[in-house]
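Example record

The entry below shows one chain as it appears in the dataset: sequence first, then structure tokens.
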Amino acid sequence: MKLLDTMVLVSAVNPDDRHHKTGMTLLRALRSSERVYVPTSTLTEFDLVLRNRGYNEAEVKETWIALAPLIGDKVVAVTPSAHLAAAEIRSDGLTYFDSLITALAKEAGAVVVTRDPQIARHVSTEW
């Protein structure tokens, strides 16, 4: 199983991002691969990133309208046990959202699709 990190979505929606093409390819993999998912925590973090970057409500809505068909039902929930594990992982210096995807990956035996070296210290990653 593979879990897409927030940076995949950020790269995919920003044509000026140097990783845009890769982000779009990875996002499209959701439709062609049975074992690729977006954690609920990734969706929440992505929404917060949009807002922190100054997107207004109309722009946020437009972005979700574009992304929703690509993501479809390829979403996996962060479990209570992953939240518990994430709390322990945060003591090792990971941020809130990085700890959630890391804990979920450990729980599911998944690879995280990311360029984040902090996550790579804890679980298998690829980009």
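Notes for this example: Strands lie at 2-4, 36-39, 75-76, 111-113, 125-126. The longest strand covers residues 36-39.
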